[in-house]
Design a protein that fits this description.
The chain has helices spanning about 10-20, 25-30, 30-45. It is mostly helical. It has a domain at about 20-45. The longest helix has 16 residues, at about 30-45. The termini are far apart.
Length: about 60
């Protein structure tokens, strides 16, 4: 496992989310500078976990 990079999981997530963002709609909508800003915001949003599934519902104690 020493051959794996320390942040390889994060890098794979960034690649996955980048591909998900790179749709024709986004590419045609934004100018280049705005596209880069929007992509960075999207990646930050997804990596912080806000874009993932919500935590499971817990019932309050009786």
């Amino acid at each position: 496992m020493s051959h794996l990079r320390k942040n390889s999981g994060r890098i794979l997530l960034i690649r996955r989310f980048s591909k998900k963002f790179e749709t024709e709609e986004n590419i045609n909508y934004y100018q280049f500078k705005d596209y880069v800003k929007a992509k960075r915001k999207y990646l930050k949003y997804m990596l912080e976990g806000v874009g993932s599934a919500p935590p499971p519902f817990k019932t309050p104690p009786s």
